[in-house]
From TrEMBL:
It comes from Hucho hucho (huchen). Belongs to the neurexin family. The keyword Transmembrane helix applies. Residues 1-118 form the F5/8 type C domain. Residues 489-526, 899-937 form the EGF-like domain. This is Contactin associated protein-like 5a. Gene3D superfamilies: 2.60.120.1000, 2.60.120.200, Galactose-binding domain-like, Laminin. GO terms for cellular component: membrane. It is found in: Membrane. Keywords: Disulfide bond, EGF-like domain, Membrane, Repeat, Signal, Transmembrane, Transmembrane helix. PANTHER family: CONTACTIN-ASSOCIATED PROTEIN-LIKE 5 ISOFORM X1, PIKACHURIN-LIKE PROTEIN.
Length: 1210
């Protein structure tokens, strides 16, 4: 152990220092485990926040980051207190540098430090890119079932082999640096991979060419492998038939010495340093230093002498720059060279005023390509591809004679021919421009091009290297917002915080998740786009059809496709399998039984979640037999089935678990009362033991085994029906809280990185805590803070954050209200009922993990104060439903269920109608439904002539627009979210026709039309300067006089839909008009058509032409309809994205929906979800496979290569 104290009076820099820092030299590399700080003794000087950097040489530095990637250390609040920081992972270094960020505003920077740690011993080898270490085995080959390989390395190059070994039978192991990441290739006796060029690597780590030490650990036992790089570990299983790794003759470290050896990789050797290299407990470098005979060390030295390439970080994308004088060149012209690395797709690398005024030369990154611009002279020249990949890139720009040449890495140079000689001006600006009067444009904008945000090194001007130390000391050039001696690049996609297979991309300050094709949405792909059950789809107003359900919501299970039968009072979920037809079985014995395994359209885990969340499940087993017994004379089973858990079951349809009997025994009507099953009578005539399995914990049937059909005339005939379940146990799982001090407690919430919380509540009290969970400092809480305000608050270590949603009506009105709160590493959100969502973005460099250690309290707090009194139901957290009723049965002050007519599972109000409690009963609020009547089931239909139309204006109430979110310690950027849901029914024989448009005042719109051939088209124009995307859900004509119901849902990011001008085909459809009626029109939470009938005096409704209330929906519903059934398979064009559109001419938030109506419409539903091209192509394949198993055919879809894309209809 060692302890270093820098106390005395303490350190304080000069007031004139632009970037003060305190540097410690430990005299040798030490293992540092903790630091402590104080202010300067007897003063008002202290540091309240600082960065900690470390270095082996004192030249190239790296910032120490804590477990969450947080680089900022919390300092002192006075001069005398001591603040300790124990490191989650130690630092092995000689030099430490403390960089103050904040200090006492009433004093100055003052610092006393203490450093804790121990001596670090290292065995080092230096590889020059042509050297290697060979470890030769004592025998011809080495075969191991267990391997442990550990080492540490550092390099400034992104490519190089660290370890390689291979055997004659095809085994191999290779560890190499590739594009700054570590790739491990490992194969155990898999001849297919031996002769294949497509070897698959497991990759881990990032930015490993930063000239700093990185640790590697490979642990293998048989096929199970753990690969650890620094603090990140990946677990995987190797391919191959064997469990042992057989390597012939030798292992090589630092390179592959024989590139012509069969099966080896033609890769670059490693150029850098390796230390503490151990292979199965053998210290390889120690053996090499002692010149042991089993080690060959070619050109390897045993001290690390790698050059230190000093970098500079450009911190700001708006104000960073480095200005250097353009030294004159003896040959005329100029030449600039430098290296850069960044994540940003845009940024200004270099600019200078040319000698020929007013021309300027600029070198910039634009759309991830390198772009050279000579203003007022030549068109731009571009080169490179994805230069924002985080790797170092070399660029040179030179002017000689009448040519300007640009070279990027090893790519061919790009040259511009000039009409006159070109020389640089007095200064070259790297990374940006000064924002004084010299760079203002005619529009008054400063720095129209984003400044470069990233790292630069090896800057030279006219072959003269630039010494950045002199820049830092103020003796050379000028700068702003730079950090010297270090490259502050940070991989925000390691680890990958995108869930459910979302693809991570990043900029310098944040990361983004592409959720296309995952079935999830949100900033981190956390939220499922599908409902959790068929019951949930029914509550949204859907009718029978095929739906994708996600039984565990945001949990790890994906969505699966099922059939939802909503024609009965109960909503049935139907899951099919691969053998739904009757099967005849003959010739089986107990020794060689007939076995059939059932593959369902859902995975076993999805089936388990579906069954567990349902109220009841059942599966019909049709079983007929002739001279084929189910049990022998002694009662031993001759046939059985296997349940979902793999257990053998010997009871048959209709009987109870645990008893080897059939339904006829339970009903006492077996054909021979001496037996418990009809088949056991063993007669020559056909017998039947058909029944329904209904013990849901055993369902579904995964396998059937039949073993008595080998006798003459013996046979069996069976059919296993689909799994059928009804009910959603979570929807009405409720608890009532009667005392302020009462609560339900559950295990600690597991929500370090993400948490979504949703529930319903009703109450008459003005305030109360819905739920709370605490840690040492962190917490999460959702509460009713006042009669009309719900708040969501939490702290992950960055200071408390509070989101609040204020309702324009009281929430303590004894009616059900919906709350959904979500927090992840990117943002937090809160939604209450249909009010706008409130969003806050998280700090880009703040703490990420929510660390809780207390119980989760529901309906109250640990302090038994501010408890909630009322009802809570359907509590769901991270896809898991909490059983409130079960816990309430054993808790005083809380009862299971909730009193009132609107608290049961029976559907009193339909089609999105809301149940309202009354003293003597209930009423249905149909204001947010397109239907009317006492139960929101009656069609609202209107007849129109050719000139009729209805215009509905959406304008949020002022009180809703005033929702605000606050925070305690940090400023988070707010945003709001929008979505659209459209539904209507129609019947017509005319086309073309306009059905519905949504628009605002600019040139974006949504239009639903019938084209000239009668096919339905949905037009999305969300980009002013792009062609609209056109969807054709039905290639056939819908102007067929039959009933169709259309349902459209889209959820986007910060979208406003606006329009002025329609494209020609849309205008043609609208100009034709048509005669008829329209029914059940729904757009988001309003029903424009119903509003036109019931609120004709409202300023929100504008009616043109003659409207007559009609019953066409009821009449059409009584006739035979032909629905557009099934799901759509299709794609969305890649250019369809959702942008934030701000209208400078309007701030009222007005959106206009115009409904042109000439169709007779009633309720039959079809739905589609759209995603990116490849995702939908994959979904189409999966859907067709599902429908093929279900006995349905699907019209083949065309490739999504042309505009508009074609959809297939099932």
């Amino acid at each position: 152990m060692f302890f270093l104290s820098l106390v005395s009076g303490g350190w304080s820099p000069k007031v004139t220092d632009r970037q003060p820092w305190l540097q410690l030299d430990l005299r040798d590399r030490m293992e540092v485990t903790a630091v402590a700080t104080q202010g300067r003794y007897g003063s008002s000087d202290w540091v309240s926040g600082y960065l900690l950097l470390f270095s082996d040489t004192g030249l190239a530095w790296k910032q120490y980051r804590q477990e969450d990637g947080v680089g900022r250390f919390v300092g002192n609040v006075n001069a005398d207190g001591v603040v300790h920081h124990k490191f989650s992972h130690s630092i092995r270094s000689r030099f430490l540098r403390f960089v103050p960020l904040d200090w006492n505003p009433s004093g100055w920077v003052g610092l006393r430090v203490e450093v804790y740690g121990c001596v670090y011993k290292s065995y080092v080898a230096d590889f020059d890119g042509r050297s290697s270490l060979l470890y030769r085995f004592n025998q011809k080959s080495m075969s191991t079932v267990k391997d442990v390989i550990s080492l540490r390395f550092k390099s400034h190059q992104a490519e190089g082999v660290l370890l390689h070994g291979e055997g004659q039978r095809g085994d191999y192991i290779t560890l190499e640096l590739h594009r700054g990441r570590l790739a491990l290739y490992l194969n155990l006796d898999d001849t297919r991979l031996r002769f294949s060029s497509g070897r698959v690597a497991v990759t881990l780590g990032s930015l490993l060419d930063d000239q700093h030490w990185h640790s590697v650990l490979i642990e293998r036992f048989n096929k199970q492998v753990n690969l650890t790089v620094d603090t990140h570990t990946q677990h995987f299983r190797t391919k191959g038939e064997g469990d042992s790794l057989e390597v012939d003759y030798e292992l090589s470290f630092g390179g592959i010495p024989l590139p012509g050896k069969p099966g080896t990789f033609l890769r670059k050797n490693f150029h850098g340093c390796i230390e503490n290299l151990y292979y199965n407990g053998i210290n390889i470098i120690d053996l090499a230093k002692r010149r042991k005979p089993q080690i060959y060390s070619g050109n390897v030295t045993f001290s690390c002498s790698q050059p230190q390439l000093v970098s500079t970080t450009f911190l700001s994308s708006s104000s960073s720059f480095l200005s250097l004088a353009a030294t004159p060149s003896a040959s005329g012209g100029f030449m600039v060279r430098f290296q850069f690395r960044t994540w940003n797709p845009d940024g200004l690398l270099l600019s200078t005023q040319l000698s020929l005024e007013p021309q300027r030369l600029e070198l910039q990154i634009s759309n991830s390509r390198l772009l050279q611009i000579t203003q007022n002279l030549h068109p731009a020249v571009s080169t490179g591809h994805r230069v924002n990949d985080g790797l170092w890139h070399s660029v040179s720009l030179s002017s000689r004679s009448l040519q300007v040449t640009m070279t990027l890495d090893n790519e061919p140079s790009s040259t511009i021919e000039l009409a006159d000689h070109m020389d640089a001006g007095d200064n070259l600006y790297f990374g940006g421009k000064r924002t004084d009067n010299m760079t203002k444009t005619s529009l008054g904008c400063e720095n129209p091009t984003l400044a470069f945000q990233g790292c630069m090194r090896l800057i030279s001007i006219n072959s003269q290297p630039m010494d950045l130390n002199q820049v830092q000391q103020g003796r050379l050039g000028n700068y702003k917002e730079l950090q010297f001696d270090t490259c502050g690049i940070h991989d925000r996609c390691l680890p990958n915080f995108c869930e459910h297979g979302g693809q991570c991309s990043q900029s310098w300050n944040t990361f983004y998740c592409d959720c296309s094709g995952t079935g999830y949405t949100g900033a981190t792909c956390h939220n499922s786009i599908y409902e959790a059950s068929c019951e949930a789809y029914r509550l949204t107003g859907s009718s029978s059809g095929y739906f994708s359900i996600d039984p565990d919501g945001s949990g790890p299970l994906g969505a699966t496709q099922v059939y939802c039968n909503m024609t009965e009072d109960k909503v049935w979920t139907v899951v099919t399998h691969n053998s739904t037809d009757p099967v005849r079985v003959q010739g089986s014995t107990l020794q060689k039984p007939y076995i059939m395994k059932f593959n369902y359209s859902a995975s076993p885990e999805q089936l388990m979640a579906l069954v567990a969340g349902s109220e009841q499940c059942q599966q019909e087993v049709v079983y007929s037999c002739r001279k084929s017994r189910l049990f022998n004379t002694w009662g031993d089973p001759l046939s059985w089935w296997v349940d979902q858990g793999g257990e053998r079951r010997t009871y048959w349809g209709g009987f109870l678990p645990g008893v080897q009997q059939c339904s006829c025994s339970l009903e006492e009507n077996c054909m021979d009362m001496n037996y418990f099953c009809n088949c056991d009578a063993d007669t020559d005539s056909w017998a039947n033991d058909t029944g329904v399995l209904s013990y849901k914990e055993h369902l579904p049937v995964s396998e059937i085994v039949i073993g008595d059909t080998n006798r003459t005339g013996s046979e069996a005939l069976y059919r296993i029906g689909p799994l059928r379940c009804y009910g959603d146990k979570s929807v009405w799982n409720a608890a009532s809280f009667y005392q302020e001090s009462s609560y339900l407690h559950f295990p600690t919430l597991q929500a370090e990185l993400s948490a979504d919380i949703s529930f319903y509540f009703k109450t008459s009290v003005p305030s109360g805590v819905f739920l709370e969970d605490l840690g040492l400092k962190d917490f999460i809480r959702v509460e009713l803070s006042s009669p009309s305000v719900v708040t969501f608050s939490f702290d992950v270590g960055n200071g408390g954050v509070v989101l609040a949603v204020k309702s324009h009506v009281p929430l303590n009105d004894r009616q059900w209200h919906y709350v959904r709160a979500e927090r992840n590493v990117k943002e937090a959100s809160l939604q209450v009922d249909q009010l706008p969502l409130r969003f806050l973005e998280a700090l880009s460099d703040g703490h990420l993990r929510l660390r809780l250690n207390s119980q989760l309290f529901v309906g109250g707090t640990a302090a038994r104060q501010r408890g909630f009194m009322g009802c809570i139901r359907t509590l769901n957290i991270n896809g898991m439903t909490f059983n409130l009723e079960e816990r309430a049965k054993m808790t005083p002050g809380v009862s299971a269920g909730c009193p009132g007519h609107c608290s049961g599972s029976s559907s009193l109000c339909h089609n999105r109608g809301r149940c309202i409690e009354k003293n003597s009963g209930y009423v249905c609020d149909c204001s947010q439904s397109a239907y009317g009547g006492p139960s929101c089931k009656e069609e609202v239909s209107v007849s129109f002539d050719r000139e009729s139309s209805v215009t509905y204006t959406f304008q949020e109430p002022f009180s809703v627009m005033q929702n605000r979110s606050s925070q305690a310690s940090r400023v988070y950027r707010e945003s709001t979210r929008a979505r659209e849901n459209m539904a209507f029914s129609f019947m017509t024989t005319q086309s073309p026709a306009m059905l519905l448009t949504v628009s605002t005042f600019s040139q974006q719109y949504i239009a639903v039309i019938l084209a000239l051939n009668g096919s339905l088209q949905i037009w999305y124009r969300l980009h002013v300067y792009r062609k609209p995307d056109v969807f054709s859900p039905s290639p056939s004509s819908l102007a067929d006089g039959r009933l169709h119901r259309i349902r459209i849902h889209r959820q986007g990011k910060d979208v406003y839909l606006q329009v002025k001008n329609f494209d020609e085909e849309v205008m043609q459809a609208g100009s034709k008009g048509f005669i008829g009626c329209l029914s059940s029109v729904q757009f988001n939470h309003v029903a424009p058509l119903k509003a036109a009938l019931l609120n004709r005096g409202s300023s929100l409704v504008s009616v043109r032409g003659h409207l007559v209330e009609s019953n066409c929906g009821v009449l059409a519903d009584s006739t035979t309809s032909h629905p557009l059934s099934g799901n759509f398979c299709g794609c969305l064009l890649d250019n369809l994205t959702c942008d934030v559109i701000t209208n400078p001419c309007s701030s009222t938030g007005v959106v206009t929906a115009v409904v042109f109506i000439t169709l007779c419409v009633v309720a039959v539903m079809t739905r589609f979800l759209y995603q990116h091209r490849q995702a939908q192509r994959d979904a189409s394949i999966k859907e067709k496979e599902f429908l093929r198993h279900a006995g349905l055919d699907c019209i083949a879809a065309r490739e999504c290569k042309n505009n508009p894309p074609k959809w297939n209809i099932c």
